[in-house]
Amino acid sequence: MRLNIRTLTAASLVTGIALLTVPGLALAGAGEPGHGHAAAVGEPAKASSAKRVVQVELGDNYYKPESISVKAGETVRFVLKNKGDFLHEFNIGTATMHAAHQKEMAMMVEHGMLTPTGINTSMNGMDHSKMGMAEMKHDDPNSVLVGPGETKELTWKFTKETALEFACNMPGHYESGMVGKVAFTR
């Protein structure tokens, strides 16, 4: 039997999407306990509830600062400024969550939804079922895409102490060092 790589890719993606529809699996990360983002990494919050603002510079494959200290239960408003020439992401998650999300981001790039410098808005509303998926969008509450020269915000409540990173999961960026640690203090 001759295998077609496109068929295998589509089958893998359909399996992945099926897993993503099970509550808690996609957000907690494979093999991690919890029921969604709140249990695994925290939860989205209103900017008005943040007691602290952290400015983060996104450059081409770096973050400034390289690590961020938080307290369990703290709500932080992140102001994210992309000073690079490429599209970058600020995503809060565990290493396992980032590994899974990198695959999703690669698929979005492969299908033209994301480009090295931005979001292809002409892909909005496109029927992705022909690609073996029901829907493809970047809308996780723990993540924001920031284009070159843009400033965006993400407000996050760190509900419990756990091993977290903030990272850019655009293809090759995490591997090039665009990852930082979230350190919990008491």
From TrEMBL:
Keyword presence, Signal: yes
Blue (type 1) copper domain ranges (all copies): 54-183
Pfam families with a match to the protein in the record: Copper-bind (PF00127)
Keyword Metal-binding listed: yes
Keyword vocabulary terms for this entry: Copper, Metal-binding, Plasmid, Signal
Molecular function GO labels: copper ion binding; electron transfer activity
InterPro entries per record: BlueCu_1, Cu-binding_ET, Cupredoxin
Range of residues in the leader sequence: 1-28
Gene3D superfamilies hit by this protein: Cupredoxins - blue copper proteins (2.60.40.420)
Protein name in the entry: Cupredoxin domain-containing protein
UniProt source species: Azospirillum oryzae
